[in-house]
Amino acid sequence: MAGLYIHIPYCKKACFYCNFHFTVNRKGQPELLQAILEEARRQRDTAVWNEATFSSLYLGGGTPSVIEPALLADFLYELRTVFPLEADAEFTLEANPDDVNPTAAATWLEAGVNRISLGLQSLNDEELRWMNRSHNAKEALDSLDTLLQAGFPSVNADLIYGGPLRSDASWLHDLDYIFNSGVDHLSAYALTLEERTPYEKLVHTGRYEAPEEQHQARQFEMLSDRAEAAGWDHYEISNLAKPGQRARHNSAYWKNHPYLGLGPSAHSYDGKYRSWNPADNALYVRAVTEGMDREGELLGPKERYNEWLMTHLRMLEGLDLKWARQHWPEFVAGLEQELLKLEARGWVQHKGPRFSLSRNGRLYADAIAAGLMQVGED
């Protein structure tokens, strides 16, 4: 089971909190798409990926929906001649509301897309302006209706909480709307202050407020409450779904399955080795044209163990110590005792050999994972 990720780096506007690789200069799209196809062909000829079929395909960015639908459809047709998908593969396209219309939706469906991840972020005009989003609340609601009426089998909504302008009333309004809208998946992210973003600069100059921890914790609790009342699975700290509708592609990341990433800044992982492309469009195209090798690193046992611990601890099912003893016997000797100490504090719960974060523990997930990790060289 492997996933295929394509990074499309184009955006209409720069959301001030975003630290992903993107550009608002949308020139050169055909050339970059051709470079991605050439990279795909070269990866197909490697020992790792030459017989791969993928159970998921995810187009992220950036904003893939800014690509003209017919151009994107042609690109996707060529891509799938290089790397076939399994018959029931999940095929996700990230989209922004202002790119959604009936014609684009029909073209995406015809190209094989069966899941849309819609970047709503908020249903409040004041918050959207504050985030420098390229759409307004009406466009957000209209786009959601268009996608649902178009018949996509799955629609995910992205929302952001915990920002200085995000009131509790606004957050509850958006949650209630989404849980009753017909979408089957929600990705809900706490606003973070990332390095080298416009938001960080605005906070440092005193123009904007930084996220406030207690404010975010309270709104995370509201998220958990509303999800439970709606009967949704809060299956990963930032991801919720109707029963049976978990995101297959992202779940594969969290379960440490192999994935191939194509495009500028994209990462790949084969189970032991991680590699990545330049986070620069021109450098990426040149690297592909000249046949340059990717940068990469071989992950040792301790690094792979730490990643397993960090990602699985974020998931509803948590850590399976029986499995861990079989795969990481050199690292798990003292893990159960540490987890039992956390259980005594109310942060962890367990059933048999499986330990997971309690609802309160989810508020401290990163700190808990860091405290359990192995340190030092392999």
* Element order: H for helix, E for strand: EHEHEHEHHEHEHHEEHEEEHEHEHHEEH
Average residue-wise pLDDT:
94
Integer count of domains: 2
Q: Give start-end ranges of low-pLDDT stretches.
A: none
Strands in their spatial order, largest beta sheet? 7-8-6-5-4-3-2-1-9
Class based on secondary structure composition and strand pairing: alpha/beta
Look at the structure and name the CATH superfamily of the largest domain: Aldolase class I
Distance between the termini: 28 Å
Please tally the helical runs, counting DSSP H or I stretches of 4 or more residues: 14
**Which of globular, elongated, flat, extended, rod-shaped describes the shape?**
globular
Radius of gyration: 21 Å
Concise description?
This protein has 14 helices and 15 strands. It is α/β, with parallel strands linked by helices and 378 residues long.
Account of the 3D structure:
With 378 residues, this protein is an alpha/beta fold. The protein folds into two domains: 3-254, Aldolase class I (TIM Barrel, Alpha-Beta Barrel); 301-372, Orthogonal Bundle (Arc Repressor Mutant, subunit A). Helix content is 40%, strand content 21%. The protein contains 14 helices and 15 strands. The chain has helices at residues 29-44, 69-82, 102-110, 125-130, 137-150, 168-179, 198-204, 213-230, 248-254, 281-290, 301-313, 321-327, 335-344, 365-372, and strands at 3-8, 54-61, 85-95, 115-121, 154-161, 185-190, 233-236, 239-241, 259-262, 267-269, 273-276, 295-298, 319-320, 348-351, 354-357. The protein has a nine-stranded mixed β-sheet, sandwiched between helices. Strands 10-11-12 form a three-stranded antiparallel β-sheet, with no helix packed on it. α6 links the parallel β5 (154-161) and β6. α2 runs parallel beside α3 (102-110). The longest helix has 18 residues, at 213-230. It is globular and about 55 Å long.
